[in-house]
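From the shared-data thread, chain only:
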Amino acid sequence: MNEIAKSPGNVFLEAKPRLNEIAEEYLTIKEVAARLKVSPKAIQNKMAAGVFKKGIHYFSPEGSRPLFKWSAVVAWIEAPQAKQMQVETDLIPMARGYNLGNHNRRTERLPLDKPNG
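Structure, as tokens:
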């Protein structure tokens, strides 16, 4: 290596670790599937279902395949599963805006319930 490359203030040497971090932050479908231990088709299904959102979890540069932002995928994994918890309680949604089996009924009345007069 020449003296310029060995100097501590060389921009090229300082930028290389940063480029490696960026390269590891953005992953292909296959790489995300491997890290999550699922099939690539499972990742594609989550994309189609809207679980992984374009612009948040993954980006599709024009003319390129989708690239996932790993930190966004980790945030999705670690997020509380509020919707899943509601499904587990087996509540039945009713027409007037309350759930059968839920003791916290909605107290406001719909405009249809007001007497005409």
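The chain has a mean pLDDT of 75.
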